[in-house]
Amino acid sequence: MLKCKILNEAFSRHKLIAFRTEKEEWGETIIGHVVGLEVGKITINEIDEYGIPIGFTTFKTDDILDIMIEDKTIRCLEILEKNQQLLSPEKSSTVWGIEEDIKNSLIDSITERKPIILFVKDGNTDDTNIIGFVKEMDDDCVLIELIDRYGEYDGRILIPIDTITGVRLDGQESNARWLLYQSRYNRDVSCPNR
Question: CA nearest 191: which of 86, 120, 100, 116?
Answer without folding.
Answer: 86
